[in-house]
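Students often ask why we bother encoding 3D structure as a string. The short answer is that it lets us treat folding as translation between two languages. Here is a chain of 278 residues written in the first language.
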Amino acid sequence: MKNRRNFLKIAGGTTLLGLLGTSMTQAKKVKNVGVNLYSLREPMGLDPIGTLTELAKIGYKVIESAPSAKGNYYGLKPKEIKQVMQDLGLVLASGHAIINANWQKSIDEAAEAGQTYLLAPMLPAKGQTVDNYKKSAEVFNKMGEDCKKSGVIFGFHNGTTEFEKENGQVLYDVLLDNTDASLVKMELDLGWAMVAGAKPEHYFEKYKGRFPLWHIKDIKQDKDESIEFGKGKVDFVAMLKNQQKSAMQYMFVEQEHLTQPAIETMRFNFQYLEKLRY
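And here it is in the second language, the structure alphabet:
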């Protein structure tokens, strides 16, 4: 009996070690972490090349630009920022631009800068109604066609209001249901979706392959504000397991609310993700 118990202990331990070994082997590391430059709006406005240099030193590989008072590239011309990115070993994968009379110029600049994606961070039709979201979807389909002609992929970035309802219909769902999946991609801001009460994993399941871009941020426990990674309530491990369903290509760190210099915040968030396993 004693020998049998010893055998079972050894066998059980061996099995446990085997399972642990398998689990450890399967654990994945976050790769090619990107950053949205709105998080660094002040330093980018003052010294865009110096700020991008610091981001490259931290380890960021992928960049998403954001509109500024100096244009979509912080005073740099499209060819200039393309060259800066190449020199630093960075990829300008995406950029946000305001929908206005200069939209075609934004498309042309994105193509010249070598961007893959050009995103609208707001809806063209104002008002939280189903009809307005259908109108926005119609405009987005046309914008998607215009971008495609220039070799750029069009997309939309959500806030919180898109998850409001009218007559029981979630407005974001209306937008997804009425846009052409081949022309209009979605950049899901996981943090703001969760603040609005939506579950990102629900959308990854319901609209598989529609979310090639993510904004990742942590949210304070007691306030609807972004905070350094690991200090809030977002379960990053759970979110990262949905990459395949969403067809995620790029994820961008974003933190709007800062408690320390922006570059230090981005360093902290990068290092948090670098240690993360999922």
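Translate back mentally: The chain has two domains: 1-29, 31-275. Keep this in mind for the problem set.
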